[in-house]
Amino acid sequence: MNSENAPKAPSASGARTRLPVGQLAYDTRQERRGIVMDHLDGFVWLRPEGGGTEWTALHGDVQPLNVREQAEALLWARVAAANARSRGEVL
After folding, report:
1. 43: buried, middle or exposed (CB in 10 Å: 19+, 13-18, 0-12)?
2. If we measure between CA atoms, which residue out of 76, 74, 32 comes closest to residue 54?
3. 3-class DSSP state for residue 21?
4. pLDDT tens digits, 41-79
5. What are the E-state strand segments in 1-91?
6. How does pLDDT run across 1-47, given as a tens digit for each residue?
7. Other C-beta atoms lying within 10 Å of the C-beta of residue 67
8. What's the first-to-final CA gap in the chain, in angstroms?
9. Pick from 10, 55, 60: which is nearest to 36 by CA?
10. Which residue intervals of the chain are DSSP H helices?
């Protein structure tokens, strides 16, 4: 891995780098996962994985999911879509 693609370490102040919009993340305060929708005024806007009402979290309370958690979330979404198709809910 070259230095351009290396993960950035938190700064001395403890600030984290911003998570990209669309990434699945974990809100440690509310103990729930969501998709990063936006960053505004020190807050991260998150939306539940399956859709629903967005909520805000402080940047310091949001962390990216590890590779295993991301794979589990993807599998869950695929199973949910297959189940919906079998019930005739999705074309």
Report:
1. middle
2. 32
3. coil
4. 989 999 998 788 999 999 999 999 888 887 888 888 888
5. 24-27, 32-40, 43-47, 55-58, 62-64
6. 444 444 343 433 445 678 999 889 999 999 999 999 999 998 999 99
7. 8
8. 42
9. 55
10. 67-86
